[in-house]
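In the laboratory, one determines a bound structure by crystallizing the protein with its ligand and collecting diffraction data. In a computational setting the workflow is compressed into a single prediction: the sequence and the ligand go in, and a structural description comes out. We illustrate the idea with adenosine monophosphate.
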Amino acid sequence: MDTILVVNAGSSSVKFQVFAVEGDGRLQRQLKGQMDGIGSRPRLRASGASGEPLADRAYPIEAVADIPAAMSVAGAWLKDELNIRPIAVGHRVVHGGADYAHPVLIDPVVVSRLERYAPLAPLHQPHNLAPIKSLLSNFPALPQVACFDTAFHRDHDPLADHYAIPHQLHAEGVRRYGFHGLSYEYVAKRLPQVAPEVAVGRVIVAHLGSGASMCAMRAGRSVESTMGFTALDGLAMGTRPGQIDPGVILYLIAFNGMSVSQVQDFLYRDCGLKGLSGVSNDMRELEASADPRAAFAIDYFVYRIGLSAGMLAAALQGIDAFVFTAGIGENSVSIRARIAERLAWLGIVLDPAENARHATRISRSDSRIPVYVVPTDEELMIAQHTLTLLMNQTLPSPKSERI
Ligand code: AMP
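The predicted complex, in structure-token form:
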């Protein structure tokens, strides 16, 4: 059976999923796995479509020292033990810069263009590109597709795409890109099935996971995002501060003597829920904690979502629906309830029983603005894009090279 491999590589882990391509072109998830602890305590874990364990094994550090090694160990496991030889690989790539409004078939020219965006996402882009480069050199004829977190936001109005800085910097790429685009694109595709009456309208989608942002959509297209040039802006996140006065950064450098890399580490790793609570970056742990700082961190998270909803409602000139997605949005009954309470002024009234049972529609029938929970599936989105590009290209024989 033909399969598509989806890869999401981070600094110390490579997550992957395999989708079977069915006769009618539909995709069926076969397995999920990840190699984590790369370069420290490598461990391969994988489970099948119904969650049944397929692998859980540790490797010596020298066997999986970097991402290319992780790719070859995981690839060998897929091939040798499960006889999975993908016909194409879809990759999550955080930054498509100003050039890429759509997924793209990868070749060496595309790779060098994407490398130019590394300064725009220094903690993600190089890791996203590492497996692409190693597959490209080991299996040059294997079709690979890059799917971008920025692409869904690329047709923002120039007003939403600019900072109030000289145009030269915009031309250099200093723009408000927006991220989590694969998640928003998936939600936009699901919404006509979930709530056709609002899918054509003005919808705020809150992607609340360890990274968090919100997107204003009109008729399924992004018009505004809480994130901008990097994935640091907007909402408070697990370890990132969200919106912060740039003067704070100047203060850290000028008066606290921090270097650029110290500031970078601080902003990406030590702020947000973790920095505010001093307890954890994980919402489940904060909800379970009796520490008043954990409660304050949650209050702050909810408060800033409320503020951002106001901003996005202004961008849309009103809203017709509100959608929760990602780890916190899909699972936390209490955070959803608290956000809905803050948005009562917009006309949102939650149904506590529907919220508690994680229904698709969690607002009361008399709520002026309906509220939905739509579980996201960025990997399926990547697999679909990969298959679409494969089918639209006249490729030399996609089956000629499989890994
Ligand atoms: P994600 O990045 O989408 O995987 O989301 C991760 C975040 O979702 C973490 O902060 C988790 O604590 C949070 N999360 C997952 N399940 C729950 C839950 N049942 N209640 C509260 N937060 C949750």
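The CA atoms of residues 11 and 354 lie 38 Å apart. Keep in mind that any predicted model is a hypothesis to be tested, not a measurement.
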